[in-house]
């Protein structure tokens, strides 16, 4: 059942009411130390009816259209590893959620104004409910901690999507899934779909111990003989890339999702097979490649930030203002897009950047200085 507070407020979707809710948000939503379900409900309504509104000065709504958001209710909450919580989401009115395919993710709009992306890890294509799983990263950007603390059964959750940038190929006859820890979330539905289709597949699932490998039992239960479980505490060491790719032939399609060192090792090893499909999804930003230092001028604030060769403009902006809006940090969600007032941008994103726009998580400058509307 939806929280009664949500139903009541939805019935009076009046912008002045909603704006006053925004202005009077409780302080503990920023503290993250104590849940406030009523506040979470109100925040959900504000986000649903107002589109995404960032707490940042670099509000992406200035350059991006308001996107379609959906309201769900948290109907299940379960710890699937000591630091991983799985949330089950359903339509508040009992309807079907939007369709999706394995590898898809949703963009969750958190009560603080953060946006974070989480892969759907329920049964492939299931629309009566979604499942997402979140690893708590205590020293991260705060999104995962907030996901753990802000939502309980009965709470509303606002999301966009689903979107899929990591889809399972239909015509690949031989698949190897390489999984590292929480990287299991997009891959579990892929494995289930491959099994249903009768495609030949194998999986290697690596983690520090079985206890810390979320959804392991579900992966193994699909076809135990096809899954290699690599628990470091049992084998005495981390897997090498040869262990991860054992048995992969020159035409095997490899799907990998896990920590950056694992992903980069697999990418490098598979580079010798130019015609073998390699699909991957990152959970952390890619390293800056061919970075040249530049200056970022925040036009309205009159400040100039120095972006070094090995850091992104987003990193530097977050140093200056921790509330700067971002989500994927990989140039495809559009959350960090800003308006460019002067200077030439080296566009590196995939979310579509006009000449006068910049995805500050990946794009850089061709000129010495870029001036943005910030
Ligand atoms: S944070 Fe997603 S495009 Fe920059």
UniProtKB/TrEMBL annotation:
Q: Which top-rank group of organisms is this from?
A: Bacteria
Co-factor requirement: FAD
Pfam families associated with the record: Fer2, NAD_binding_1
Which residues does the UniProt record annotate as the domain 2Fe-2S ferredoxin-type?
294-374
Q: Name the Enzyme Commission number(s) assigned to this protein.
A: 1.14.12.7
Q: Does the keyword Oxidoreductase apply?
A: yes
* Record-linked InterPro entries: 2Fe-2S_ferredoxin-like_sf, 2Fe-2S_ferredoxin-type, 2Fe2S_fd_BS, Beta-grasp_dom_sf, FAD-bd_FR_type, FNR_nucleotide-bd, MRET, OxRdtase_FAD/NAD-bd
Top-level class of the enzyme under EC nomenclature: oxidoreductase
The answer to keyword rRNA-binding applying to this record is: no
| Domain named FAD-binding FR-type: residues | 67-169
> What is this protein called in UniProt?
Phthalate 4,5-dioxygenase oxygenase reductase subunit
Upper taxonomic lineage: Bacteria, Bacillati, Actinomycetota, Actinomycetes, Mycobacteriales
The gene designation is pht2_2
